[in-house]
């Protein structure tokens, strides 16, 4: 897979979220706290709320994407670049080209 494939397959944040939900939960969200499958979708926030324990969660919770401020499409591009990189220099230059820094990847409350 290359960068153009990522851009075409994941044109926006919603398509990235749908992909993560498919691979993580097989499109059947499960509470990350009590593992109940009885959850409600909170569409505005791309989150779910458990009917059993009443906790809220998203598909990115407990993953490398948790608390990120960087769009998921950019993360997916970086992962492809890293997977295809043969040398460390390519990975470092990829971070710079995509303007990734630790501080811009994380929310202030993380």
Assign an overall shape: elongated
Strand content: 5-15%
Number of helices: 5
Order of helices and strands, N to C? HHEEEHHH
**Oligomeric composition of the shown chains:** single chain
| Rg, Cα atoms, Å | 16 Å
Enumerate the spans where pLDDT stays under 50 for 5 or more consecutive residues. Answer: none
- Percent range of helical residues: 40-55%
How widely separated are the two ends?
A: 31 Å
What's the mean pLDDT score? 83
Strand count, sense and barrel status of the largest sheet are: 3 strands, antiparallel
**How do the strands line up in the largest sheet?**
1-2-3
Total strand segments? 3
Count of individual domains:
1
State the secondary-structure class.
mainly alpha
Quick take:
The protein has helices at residues 3-9, 13-25, 72-84, 88-97, 102-105; strands spanning 39-42, 47-50, 56-57. The protein has one domain (3-105).
Describe this structure in words.
43% of the residues lie in helices and 9% in strands. The model has no long low-confidence stretch (mean pLDDT 83). The chain has 110 residues and is mostly helical. A three-stranded antiparallel beta sheet has the order 1-2-3, with no helix packed on it. It is built from five helices and three strands; from the N terminus they run H-H-E-E-E-H-H-H.
């Amino acid at each position: 897979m290359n960068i153009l494939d990522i851009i075409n397959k994941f044109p926006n944040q919603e398509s990235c979220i749908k992909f993560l939900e498919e691979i993580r939960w097989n499109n059947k969200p499960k509470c990350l706290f009590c593992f109940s499958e009885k959850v409600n979708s909170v569409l505005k926030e791309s989150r779910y709320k458990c009917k059993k324990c009443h906790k809220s969660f998203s598909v990115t919770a407990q993953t490398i994407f948790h608390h990120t401020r960087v769009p998921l499409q950019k993360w997916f591009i970086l992962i492809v670049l890293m997977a295809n990189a043969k040398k460390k220099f390519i990975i470092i230059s990829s971070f710079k080209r995509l303007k990734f820094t630790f501080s811009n990847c994380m929310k202030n409350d993380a």
